[in-house]
Amino acid sequence: MAHGPYSSFGSISQKQGVCLRVSTRTPKKPNSALRKIAKVRFSNRHDIFAHIPGEGHNSQEHSIVLVRGGRVKDSPGVKSHRIRGVKDLLGILDHRKGISKYGAERPKSK
């Protein structure tokens, strides 16, 4: 995501916002899926679409979320990601690999 005076993020890497709507969107050709996205409003009144990574989520309207940059290549207009396991968006339970990306807790070693 671009940083600068005209960007929604300004010069910072993560920003907190309020979820306005949770929906799905179909990707560009030749891909086929239902990508989970959310419309998020920042305190500077900018509205953006943010991708919800991973399988399943507990997102709903009015939840407080943390957003980072990074576009989704096959979804037009989606230029940021929500961060799992922070604020109101839960992490993914029992996720073994890439646990920091999905807000999962470290598995208990036997």
From TrEMBL:
Cellular component, GO, one term: mitochondrion
The keyword Phosphoprotein belongs to this UniProt entry's keyword annotation = no
Location in the cell reads: Mitochondrion
Pfam families to which the protein is assigned, alphabetical: Ribosom_S12_S23
User: Origin, by domain of life?
Assistant: Eukaryota
Report the function annotation for this chain. Answer: Protein S12 is involved in the translation initiation step.
Do you know which PANTHER family this protein is assigned to? 30S RIBOSOMAL PROTEIN S12 FAMILY MEMBER (PTHR11652)
- The protein here is known as Ribosomal protein S12, mitochondrial
Tell me which species this is from. Answer: Aegilops tauschii subsp. strangulata (Goatgrass)
